[in-house]
Please model this.
Amino acid sequence: MYWDVNLGNAEKIKDVTEQAVDYYEVAVGTDRRYPKTRDNTIPFTNVGQNTSVTFSNLDLKTLAATYYVTVRGYSASFSTAEVTSTGINAGVDSKVVATEVKIPKYVNSLSEVKLQWQEFDSTLPILLYYVGLGSATSASVLPEDMDCLDMLLATDVSKTTFYERRMDFAGKDTYREIRDLSLQQRGSYFVTVVGEILFIVESCLPYWGYCISHQLSSSSLFRQ
Model:
């Protein structure tokens, strides 16, 4: 497990006393709401002034549990501040396993193609699909040699490769009828389906490292 102090969800507390950070402690737990569960996976560990740390030889539950990283900052006068990350699911990556697109070897129409595919296998939800149709020419690039993002951004290479029908939004459907085509008799074409996964991006404004303490309320920690 890799942690970076910039990945917190804190907000700056105004009108409070600022003190330099002397050292950090990092813990991992399964519930950030309660003190006992903030460090029930990895107890609070002194990492000095390092702003990143890697924990190894862990026995995390794949997809079955959510983990939270809690960071405490201590000043030289022993004032403390604490911040906890959003949830982290172990064993989740962005790998997507595509399936075969089912389409007849020979199509008896020059203006329409019908195709279907099974849902892609992914640890993260498939948000939607895109479908494009093209043909192999001296100016085009085979889809297996292209990056999926380039296909969706309609780059010059993508426009040339999917000349017959540029990458088009298909939603969550796994069946598509591509119409209004101008295919050539005995022409050879390919169809490409791109799946887009749903992912979460967390962003917070970083501030230069210092510890924030307050007399009346809990404090938050910021580190750039």
About this structure: Confidence is low (pLDDT under 50) at residues 5-16, 200-224. The longest helix spans residues 156-161. Helices lie at 148-152, 156-161.
